[in-house]
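Q&A FORM
Asked by: J.P.
Topic: structure of tRNA dimethylallyltransferase

PROVIDED:
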Amino acid sequence: MSKIPLIVVVGPTASGKTALAIDIANYGGGEIVSADSMQIYKYMDIGSAKPTAEEMSQAVHHLIGFLEPDDEFSVADYTELAHKTIADITSRGKIAVMAGGTGLYINSVVNDVTFGEIDTDYELREKLQKTAEEKGSEYLLEMLAEFDKESAERLHPNNVRRIIRAIEFYKTTGKPISKHQEETKRVESRYNPLMICIDWDRDVLYDRINRRVDIMIKSGLLEEVKGLMDMGYTKELNSMKGIGYKEIMDYYDGKMSLEDAVELIKQSSRRYAKRQLTWFRRDDRIHYVSSKNPFEESKKLIDEFLK
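REPLIED BY: S.T.
REPLY: Here is the structure written out as tokens.
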């Protein structure tokens, strides 16, 4: 069976993935499949850096803004939807251009990871959730590290749901979820991917992040968060734990000044970018293109890829 060609634009936050993906989609006759774990939610446009209305009009985008902020959604759910979306795009004679910075989403699709069905242990899940509330997520990460060090090092403390899922997977199957993911990588993927990342100097990237946060504030991030709070969404939700949302919620709750909240968003965004870079550097399939002229360099790679 011939493999499905898939162009994948990856990279850290504020690296210019959206603009490059649009250029590539228009050049190659493609449609964009978002791979961003925050852009999947409705009403969360500014803080998640969704493509603007103008950008959305320049190319067809999929898997953006289709979930309520309190909907349950897993990486397995995303992977299933992405496979169906890519299949649909390909069936119409177009090429799918996956673009985003959520490494787990991207790897799960590109590597064709299969997610084993296991029974949900609701009692254990509730107990772990209570432990996280009482002792903090770092305590759960330490617990996870005892039998799955790789997952514990990879998961962010804010991602309590995935930490709990990794512990639950081990307790239910007796196998670390990282080992399960590694085993599924050995299954040959249905895709032939061309993976592209814009290569930025670290200091320049951090400056771009800082400036983008300032733009988000000016563009109405405070009003966006207030609107979500008025709709009844709370910071206990996974969606509201995203960078930019939890800090502004803390500001509204009187836990910090606006100045401190903005600075914390910048700091958290820079740290997130560092983790993203570390994640993507592990993948030797990725081609790095210059930040000075990313599209021109990408065109050469695409021409060779689509021969």
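FOLLOW-UP: The radius of gyration is 19 Å.
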